[in-house]
Write a structure and sequence with these properties.
By secondary structure, the chain is an all-beta fold. Helix content is 0%, strand content 34%. It contains no helices and ten strands. The strands form two sheets. The chain has a six-stranded antiparallel β-sheet, with no helix packed on it. Strands 2-3-10-9 form a four-stranded antiparallel β-sheet, with no helix packed on it. The radius of gyration is 20 Å and the shape is globular. It starts with 73 loop residues before the first strand and ends with a strand.
């Protein structure tokens, strides 16, 4: 089986201003750079994130609902709360959990996130519809709701980019594409065909756990 391995290319901004002292003429001044969008930048606009191992205790944490794993979509609505959840994705970690691949999405902020996880044939970025470039043969799309723009809070969102799956997993990479209209999207690239997976939430701090059978 041949696998598609592509890496997110980090787009670099190159600006130059030159001043020429020619008789009778002057050089044009470049247009100023556009102001940042109110939404998180699209995937590929910042350096790829580094690989992160599971935090202490996450390798042993079990699904409290003990739901059977299958390849069907998984989702959960936002938790009931007096205050609206305000969260950002602060880190993504990948590791081994009893022979399964575990991907953990840690969030900073307050409240309980809603989420949906589903296989897609061709993952795309929110808003622009541009393709998400991540290695692998099958793709789990993870959408987390209740996101707030970091510019409106003191929360720190992880940079757009790809987290490595490491040599001990079948995860080719996890592409974090940022957020759009209150939803943060990531794509888990997997080696091989679609396979069963399960999801559950951990608290303190809030985290979404995705376990994928090998």
């Amino acid at each position: 089986m041949s696998f598609r391995h592509r890496r997110l290319a980090a787009a670099a901004a190159l600006t130059a201003a030159a001043s020429l002292t020619l008789a009778g003429c002057g050089a044009d001044t470049p247009d100023p750079a556009p102001s940042p969008s109110s939404e998180t930048a699209a995937a590929g606009s910042s350096p790829a994130a580094q690989a992160r191992a599971l935090a202490p205790g996450e390798a042993e944490a079990a699904d409290p609902s003990a739901r059977p794993a299958d390849s069907a979509p998984k989702s959960e609505e936002s938790g009931e709360s007096v205050d609206r959840a305000e969260l950002v994705v602060s880190e993504i970690r990948v590791g081994d959990h009893g022979g399964e691949d575990r991907v953990v999405f840690e969030l900073a902020g307050q409240g309980v996130p809603g989420y949906s996880v589903d296989y897609v044939d061709a993952p795309v970025q929110q808003g622009s519809g541009a393709p998400v470039e991540v290695g692998g043969d099958s793709f789990l799309q993870v959408t987390l709701s209740d996101q707030v723009l970091p510019t409106e809070t003191d929360l720190t969102e992880m940079p757009v980019g790809t987290v490595s799956g490491g040599e001990s997993t079948d995860v080719a990479g996890v592409a974090f594409t940022g957020q759009f209209e209150g939803q943060a999207r990531s794509v888990i690239g997997l080696e091989g065909a679609d396979r069963p997976f399960s999801t559950f939430l951990l608290q303190d701090p809030p985290r979404l756990v995705v376990d994928i059978e090998r």
